[in-house]
């Protein structure tokens, strides 16, 4: 062998395998990423119910994957729309613009819904209420970035009972987003933003009678007397269903459906999560997700946990049974992924869009400070104060989502300085009962807060869409839609502390108590995939999670 040939062979042996190995390491993406958001899931549901879970659901994620035990939302308000958006955009309402589920739009002078879009039509439903798209979300999602990175060859499908839970995570470029139309319809639908007609697999699912099959008795999975991790079944802190005198097991959904908006009763029971799982498994098959080496995205939100929590509260037997059944649904989903995509070839993360507070009435019964805020009376007091102080009517345009919006045309007409009005209202509001803190637009735009509730308020404050005065209620004090059941929205730990589990392809085994944030999820998944971060991302890569 000549020296020249020897040198060529030597270089090929030494460098080609190394370069191939480096390329493999950079581009070794999973076939499918499954993002799971459990609506209204407190972190302590993992620990409270852990011993009752099976081996294939939550426990599988914890044992085989990585558990971030001190994971939090880093903004206020903690609602479903902002929560799902922040998980997938890697940033907060300050940047992505989804400041609530519904908010007052200062330009159209009306309330708008986070997923509503009058320019589209429903597909699969004749309802005028189902015109939905992600157009109000200002930034991209990690699922969008995967689509861009793969030249739109990687698919994205979003699924949830709630429209916003399907639409916002799937992003602007999704191949499809499907949500469940309840009441008398009982079927999965979409909008013309995505397509003009439902795909055959969705039509077949809707015609299968699967949704109707859940009109059955909801009883506890196990002997109710063994449910020691929750409160008494009969108490004064739960709502229940119309047509049943007590909020106690069992619930005959077939008998109760006519008095509880038909198929909506399935949405507000544990079976709504089972129906979502059925549909998600069918989507994997129908869309051939994870069937090649180009990464696809499946976003799944389990909405029924939120409906049950709002109805029965975080300490109820109903919420415990819902999570035990969800655990079984997760096991079914993971088994389907193992079979259809391949064990070790897909990556899953699971988190929540917010937590929830104990029912204030229950907290009061055990002597913990809590309460119900009289929003209507408060608004009347504020408007009366402003009128008396400035001798002008109509300076306040709207009060909603713990924010006060000014009528700037009226301010200009009467030569009233906005900052003077802000300060005056802030001082008055802080004297009101059950108001803990107040922030003005001037403060939030001129001061950089780096800790505490002030930082959370600022990260949830969007200059263009938010109000002029922002209020914070006392701990465990809520604006009641009812005095039974739980709710959420604050920047306190019961609302901000949410689970964050990763498992599957590219994920280490382990856990941490290091503080992590919801906004870290999208950058971490982006790093795993080797793609550009969502364009508004502010979170960090959790490098200790990745292999």
Structure, explained:
With 547 residues, the protein is of the alpha/beta class. Helices cover 37% and strands 17% of the residues. It contains 21 helices and 20 strands. The strands form five sheets. The protein has a ten-stranded mixed β-sheet, sandwiched between helices. Helix 8 packs antiparallel against helix 11 (271-286).
Kindly summarize this structure in a few lines.
The chain is an alpha/beta fold and 547 residues long.
Query: What portion of residues is helical?
Result: 25-40%
Number of E-state strands: 20
Overall 3D form:
globular
Distance between the termini: 42 Å
- Class by alpha and beta content: alpha/beta
Q: Beta-sheet strand percentage?
A: 15-25%
Biggest sheet layout = 10 strands, mixed
Uncertain stretches: 3-24
Task: Give average pLDDT, whole number.
Answer: 95
CA radius of gyration is: 25 Å
Q: Helical region count?
A: 21
Q: For the largest beta sheet, what order do the strands appear in spatially?
A: 5-8-7-6-11-1-12-19-2-20
List the defining traits of the structure above:
547 residues; alpha/beta; 10-stranded mixed beta sheet; 4-stranded antiparallel beta sheet; 21 helices; 20 strands; 17% strand; disordered N terminus
């Amino acid at each position: 062998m000549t020296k020249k040939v020897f040198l060529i062979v030597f270089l090929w042996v030494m460098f080609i395998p190394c370069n191939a190995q480096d390329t493999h390491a950079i581009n070794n993406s999973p076939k499918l990423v499954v993002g799971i958001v459990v609506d209204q899931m407190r972190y302590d549901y993992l620990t409270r119910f852990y011993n009752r879970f099976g081996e294939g659901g939550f426990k599988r994620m914890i044992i085989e994957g990585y558990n971030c035990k001190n994971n939090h939302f880093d903004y206020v308000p903690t609602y479903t729309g902002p929560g799902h958006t922040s998980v997938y955009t890697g940033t907060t309402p300050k940047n992505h613009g989804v400041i609530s589920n519904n908010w007052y739009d200062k330009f159209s002078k009306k309330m708008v819904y986070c997923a509503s879009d009058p320019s589209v039509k429903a597909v699969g439903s004749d309802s005028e209420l189902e015109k939905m798209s992600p157009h109000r979300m200002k930034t991209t999602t990690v699922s969008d970035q995967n689509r861009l990175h793969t030249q739109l060859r990687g698919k994205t499908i979003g699924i949830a009972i709630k429209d916003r839970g399907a639409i916002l995570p799937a992003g602007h470029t999704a191949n499809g987003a499907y949500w469940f139309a309840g009441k008398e319809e009982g079927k999965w639908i979409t909008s013309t933003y995505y397509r003009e007609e439902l795909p055959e697999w969705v039509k077949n699912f809707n015609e299968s009678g699967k949704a109707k099959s859940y009109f059955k008795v909801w009883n506890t999975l196990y002997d109710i007397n063994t449910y020691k991790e929750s409160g008494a079944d009969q108490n004064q802190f739960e709502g229940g269903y119309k047509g049943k005198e007590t909020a106690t097991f069992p619930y005959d959904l077939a008998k109760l459906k006519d008095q509880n908006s038909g198929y909506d009763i399935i949405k507000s029971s544990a079976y709504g999560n089972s129906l979502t799982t059925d549909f998600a498994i069918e989507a994997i098959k129908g869309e051939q997700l994870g069937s090649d080496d180009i990464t696809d995205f499946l976003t799944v939100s389990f909405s029924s946990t939120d409906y049950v929590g709002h109805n029965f509260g975080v300490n109820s037997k109903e919420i415990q049974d819902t999570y035990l059944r969800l655990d079984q649904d997760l096991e079914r989903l993971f088994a389907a992924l193992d079979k259809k995509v391949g064990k070790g070839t897909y990556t899953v993360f699971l988190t929540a869009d917010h937590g929830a507070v104990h029912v204030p009435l229950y907290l009061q019964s055990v002597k913990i400070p809590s309460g119900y805020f009289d929003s209507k009376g408060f608004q009347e007091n504020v408007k009366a104060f402003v009128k008396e102080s400035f001798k002008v009517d109509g300076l306040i345009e709207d009060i909603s989502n713990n924010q006060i919006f000014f009528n700037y045309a009226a301010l200009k007409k009467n030569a009233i300085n906005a900052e003077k009005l802000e300060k005056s209202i802030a001082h008055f509001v802080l004297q009101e009962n059950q108001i803990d803190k107040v922030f003005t637009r001037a403060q939030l735009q001129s001061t950089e807060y780096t800790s505490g509730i002030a930082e959370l308020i600022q990260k949830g404050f969007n200059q263009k869409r938010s109000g002029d005065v922002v209020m914070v209620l006392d701990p465990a004090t809520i604006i009641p839609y009812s005095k039974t059941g739980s709710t959420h929205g604050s920047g306190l730990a019961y609302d901000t502390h949410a689970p964050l589990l990763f498992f599957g392809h590219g994920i280490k085994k382990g856990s941490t108590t290091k503080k992590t944030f919801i906004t870290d999820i999208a950058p971490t998944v982006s790093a795993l995939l080797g793609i550009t971060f969502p364009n508004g991302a502010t979170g960090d890569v959790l490098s200790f999670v990745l292999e």
